[in-house]
Design a protein that fits this description.
This protein is α+β, with helices and mostly antiparallel strands. It has one helix and three strands; from the N terminus they run βαββ. It has one domain.
């Protein structure tokens, strides 16, 4: 028999984007940088390592733009 337990954690970085103007480039850049650093920390990646193409995801959410990532940890 095999038993595996996994814990999935999603981190969201929410950028206010009220209509009609939307999010500012400065706010988006700050959130992207924060998400990038948090992903690297969560995955123990050095700053010079390239992130996987699907590491950070961007999605609309009501009056905001959300940058997120998911990390999974588990043990047998």
């Amino acid at each position: 028999m095999t038993h595996t337990r996994r814990t999935t954690t999603r981190e969201d970085f929410v950028i206010p984007a009220p209509a009609p103007a939307g999010a500012t480039a400065a706010d988006f850049t700050a959130a992207w940088t924060a998400a990038d650093l948090a992903y690297r920390e969560a995955c123990n990646l050095p700053t010079e390592a390239a992130l996987p193409d699907n590491a950070l995801m961007v999605r609309p959410d009501r009056a905001a733009v959300v940058i997120s990532f998911v990390v999974e940890s588990g043990s047998a």
